[in-house]
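WARN no homologs supplied; continuing
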Amino acid sequence: MYKISFLILLFFCLGLSKANAQQYYYFVGFKDKPHYKEIVFSPSLYLSAKAIERRTINGIPLNPNDVPPDTAYVNSLSRLPLYLHAKSRWFNGCIILTSEKSIEQQIKELPFVASVTYLGPANFLTEEGGSREESIKNQLSVLEQSFERKKTAKDSLFTGKSNAQLNLTKSDSLLLNNINGQGVLIAVLDAGFYNLDILPAFRPLFVEKRIIAAWDMVENEEDVFNDDDHGLAVMSCLAAWQPGVIMGTAPKANYILLRTENSFTEYLAEEYFWAIGAEFADSAGADIINSSLGYTKHDEKSMGHKYAELDGKTTIITKAAEIAASKGIIVVASAGNEGDKTWRQISAPADGANIVAVGAVDKDGRYVGFSSVGPTADKRLKPDIAAMGKQNALIDKNGNIYNGNGTSYACPIIAGNFAQLMQLAPTAGNIKIKEALRLSALHFYEPDKYIGAGVPNLVLAGKMIQSIGDSLIDVCLSVDEKFILVSANVRRSQKVEVQIIHPVNGEIIKEEISLQKGLNRVAIKVNKKRPKGLCRLVVSFGQRKAEINFML
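OK structure emitted
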């Protein structure tokens, strides 16, 4: 198990006392990192072995933003009447707490300080158990759509009440073959994981020591099991393991549980907590980040976002998510639950160009009205893909199973799907894995602003990432029967001849299609002259031919 004491010291400033008076968060940005060249090429000083391994697999070089902020700057800042809450490598500065608003000008006058940003007041839980009962209700528009707490009726022998949400992406087929996320490290950034440590469905995580780290970014403590229960519901779709009752998509993965959201309030501070959480996940070696959180409006209007800011490069949380993706982490974010509200559009960080934004569909793969829509402010198509987010099987704080709605629950299904693919092909790299999942989706050839490319097919995506050389992977008819979908992998961009052969009368239809280097999925339009019934498709890769039988 990875020991987290090193990372705690790296990110969080412990041992300093907080005053009882009302305190306020600020982010203090430093002008430079004067000594970064002395340590940037000694990554073991600030990254775990697993984080270094992930960078190696994905061909990612070390960067100055990997290096922690200058120790001398941090020490100078700590001499002022304030509490050092956390340090940021990526944004080169510190989150501080202070009860003296007048200190802002004093900080700005320090020679090494570039900026001071007000992040909002601190609001800590003062009554034991207060957040456990009511906090989730305060954040319905951000964290989840309304739900009914009722027991579901239909079970399957293995996947239990999760059967519908697992079957839609075909991840149940992989689970039955022990492709369950084993060996993959997933960081879950959320509002709290109330009672997760005592519920039967999550007991294997603790018995098998697969909770690698846990930290509350809001209150700077290790206990993440005594606050909100939104993260518990999210983990139901991701990590639950109770065969015949409930099952997540990656029940055998390793996990980092990070509380970054204070569900009592909504201030800019929480976006910075998310950024610190993502940095922590990176240093600990996380392969995937699941973020069933999204930010649009804040309690202080000036901190809230306008649609124009959802351009993939403006909000602090999206900047942090993009940096995480640049480190080789697959960042999966819920699109949001504003589709039937005035805002309608996706939330940050789902607007990031390299972030996998997940929309919600029902058990039949149809768009559900609460799921936030695209495009981004700069007209990029979002969401990217979709999963079941209506009437999902979830676990409540007492261990009961109920039905819940929200992109918050579609998101972890996809995050777990990525973990399954990583287990199948641990050296494939995040770019190929992300592309395979997108191409496997039901509507990859005609994505829209509601569900993107649609619901992925894990069985097909698995075939794609395991393909090598010039190979024909799969052939099928689209759901609307308008296209023949041909999946192939090629070593170089080329044009290939496709023959569709009727096995009874020998009729042959020829097509020429262009394939780009790597994974491809091409839609060939069906017309009235196409043969019907069982056919054979033959693709010529130079002197070699590959063929698959399929129904047309």
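Residues 499 and 510 are 5 Å apart (CA to CA).
OK
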